[in-house]
Amino acid sequence: MPTSTADAQWEGPLKSGSGTMNLASGAFSGAYTFASRFVDGDRTNPEELIAGAAAGCFSMALSGAIGGAGHEPVKVHTTAEVTIAADGGGFTITGVALHTEAEVPGLDDDAFQALAEDTRKNCPVARLLAGAPITVEAKLL
User: Fold this and answer.
1) pLDDT exceeds 80 at position 103
2) Over 90: is that where the pLDDT of 20 sits?
């Protein structure tokens, strides 16, 4: 199985310094700061990358689960929201909210909700993030 890599570099003090994160594939390179992470700045942050990983993994895994249930999805679109909050002297990721919509001919909503819930528990990124609450709001188009 493949191993994915990324690197990050931080320069300067925590609140006034800055950093960059780079995916080894070259698909992404971005700057981040204390403000972009904790004060809604205009650059990326690690939680945004986690949100991308969660949304991508969930959409792909749900598509596979739908296929395994005998249906062929036209599309699965997921938005992930990763929340971070102050926790004593530090910060903690407090939750991941997944919002997904899928177009699947012939699949009823009860079966879709069951597949979405199972995927929420079992996609690889969700299992990695199991220390934080993960919720899913699933809508069949």
Assistant:
1) yes
2) yes
